[in-house]
From TrEMBL:
Highest rank taxon of the organism: Bacteria
SUPFAM superfamilies named in the record: Actin-like ATPase domain
GO molecular function, one term: N-acetylglucosamine kinase activity
Native source species: Neolewinella aurantiaca
InterPro entries membership: ATPase_NBD, NAGK-like
Name of the protein in its database record: N-acetylglucosamine kinase
Entries under CDD domains matching the protein: ASKHA_NBD_PG1100-like
Length: 284
């Protein structure tokens, strides 16, 4: 019996794979040890074990998480999971490996995450082979929800939206300019707040100015990350994450302009990860 987690900064998806292969799914708030206090994860684990999946006893837990790139950050997660299931084998891995397995399966390719944050890697069908440094939402995260949100807010505050979009945005935001700035600079999770504005952009993505903002962000993402990998013109480039899924036509346009090979767009990576692990003989 196997428990799999795919956790981003905003949302975490969990798959419980029973011995007969039957799979059930639950969701908790996301957790990124780089930007979130550990108490957030502790609280969500309490909810998982007492409300969402009470009484389960997994033999193995495979946790793929944003920000899990070193021992210190992985250990925060491992210790709390092990506290709930002391007998389980717990593996905490970077979300990049999860993205590669979900998007590419056992085939070589370039895997991309475009959600609240962004990241990329090259993958040989077994493991991550290269990763262009991800600088996070303050310095990087090109193409991500937080990056798009920042671009939209700059356009709004610099009075570059037309009257129609300005009116629509102010109705969507339901707060004044000072409230927006307060939430950006005083929130514990500003990246998530910034990414929340992509819902407005999705609703208006037929507008030329919104298309320009999104295309520019995707172009920067492809140029600064994807095109840095050896063999990037030959390897399929696959995507997971809500931003890639909801803005797929604009992303495809940016890819075609750069002659990149289109791979898979995976809307629900947790389902692909469950398929991946079910296919491994030791988990059957």
């Amino acid at each position: 019996m196997l428990l799999i987690a795919d956790s981003g900064s905003t949302k975490a998806d969990w798959a419980w794979v029973a011995k007969d292969g039957e799979t059930s799914y639950v969701h908790t708030a996301g957790y990124n040890p780089v930007v979130h206090p550990k108490e957030l994860f502790h609280g969500e684990m309490d909810r998982l074990t007492t409300e969402l999946l009470p009484g389960l006893s997994p033999k193995e837990v495979h946790y793929y998480g944003a920000g899990c790139w070193d021992y210190k950050r992985k250990q925060v997660i491992q210790d709390r999971i092990q506290q709930s299931w002391p007998e389980a084998k717990v593996l905490v891995m970077h979300d990049l490996l999860g993205a590669a397995r979900a998007a590419c399966g056992r085939n070589p390719g370039i895997a991309c995450i475009l959600g609240t944050g962004s990241n990329t890697c090259s993958y040989d069908g077994d493991d991550v082979t290269d990763n262009v440094t991800n600088l996070g939402f303050m310095l990087g995260d090109e193409g991500s929800g937080s990056h798009l949100g920042k671009a939209l807010l700059r356009t709004y505050f610099y009075r570059e939206l037309d009257d129609e979009l300005t009116d629509a945005f102010e109705k969507f935001a339901k707060v004044d300019k000072s409230d927006i700035l307060d939430k950006v600079y005083e929130s514990d999770i500003p990246n998530t707040y910034l990414a929340s504005f992509t819902r407005f952009m999705g609703e208006h993505q037929d507008h030329p100015l919104i298309q320009k903002i999104v295309f520019t962000s995707f172009a920067e993402f492809l140029d600064r990350h994807v095109r840095k990998y050896r063999g990037h013109l030959d390897l399929p480039v696959s995507f997971i994450g809500s931003i890639a899924f909801h803005f797929k036509p604009i992303l495809l346009a940016a890819m075609h302009e750069r002659d990149l090979k289109v791979g898979r767009f995976v809307h629900k990576p947790i389902e692909a990860l469950a398929d991946f692990h079910r296919s491994v003989a030791t988990f059957k």
